[in-house]
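anyone seen this seq b4? input:
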Amino acid sequence: MDITRRSLIRSGVLGAAGILMAPREGIAAIAGLPPSPSLASAGLRKTRATAPRATAARARSVVQVWLWGGPSHLDTFDPKPSAGYDYCGALDKAIPTNVDGILIGELLPELAKRADKYSLIRSLTHGINAHETAAYSVQTGRNPADRLVYPGMGAVVSLFRGYGAGYTGLLPPYIVLADLQGRFSESGFLGPRYAPFATGGDPAQTPFAVQGVVTPGVSEQRQRDRRALLHQLDALGALMQGQSTFEAYAQGEDQAYELILGESGKVFDLSQEKDDVRERYGRNTLGQSCLAARRLVERGVPYVTINAKGWDTHKQHFQTMRQKLPQLDKGLSSLLQDLSDRGLLDSTIVWCCGEFGRTPRVQWEAPWNGGRGHWGQVFSALVAGGGFKGGHVVGSSDARGEEVRDRPVSPADLMGSMYELLGLDPDNTRLPSPDGQDLRLTPAGPQRESGRGRLAEIM
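predicted toks r here
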């Protein structure tokens, strides 16, 4: 096919248009540009989002450390050393923390030194043992059997604290490091405008190849040369200067290249950190994701999710824990310490858990041979910062970690507590409904029966 000057110009103009208008793709997604109103779901206009009784916000950002697959509560935040070998296996020790009376798993020594900075919830429960529905419940606070697919917390924060609600940063307001889970739609009925930007790549690699921002093998000078060539070919754009549509394209291009070549995009360049800092976080994907999350919070990004893979330990559980738990220990403890040292922990919620716990009794039999299965009857979470007190434990499980012993906490209780700290009244804030329903931020009635209410004792 012959390539003419006219086709090249047309391609350049349409390329610039694509950069601006694609709602969640390529550079437009990186630039955080909202989609064209014509792309927004018309149904969401039937009932508008409202926050009539917003409370004073103590938190401005959230970091969610999601242990994808479900970590064992007995090996992390709710050890049961007296339960015996069938329950503890080789990890049969609990270690003291810097808060009297609080013990955690033996492979978490750095977190043990910082228990004054976080609280533990040892009585989370939803009774669900399937990944998809359990992940949906924990991240939305909703019953998976509900007719609507509700948005996760990150999308809700993007709605109420993102573009159109005071956030003006070039970085998207909801960022996932590094891959989406694929378990459910994070934005639910809110639609793609509030979906997260997933960086892709691996922050432990150099460079951290963030989708649309960092292209391995393409230097900054080459990017600048490409942009200059685009401008040379864009004769129509030059003729249409001052026309509103083309000015919008130009603005979108400027924002996109600011992320690619300017200071905003350098937030993903972890080589700017000193080697000893990177070593302290751990030179692995989880550790460097925690470091990237700290840098994003420093830039004011409202919601960051770290999707840490590898916690679904049906087989080789204890071998995997000896690798994964030290990585979690270094990464999460360094994140908490750095946020505290930089004066950011008071305004940043950090929460860490998975979709459920794991079977307290080790599955020694074939084919598992020392694995742990799914366990939604009771599991644990760590919460810190943003108004959460440190050095406390909420609830407890029984002697073997099989059932809630006291103070059950539902996912809705946890979600509602975090929304309240973000200045969103869980009872009176309304989500925009796709069919005109009156949708509270958190559920009422039967969906809250598994819990005893929000976490007032640590807020």
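DSSP finds 13 helices and 16 strands in the chain. The two ends are 66 Å apart (CA to CA). kinda curious what u guys think
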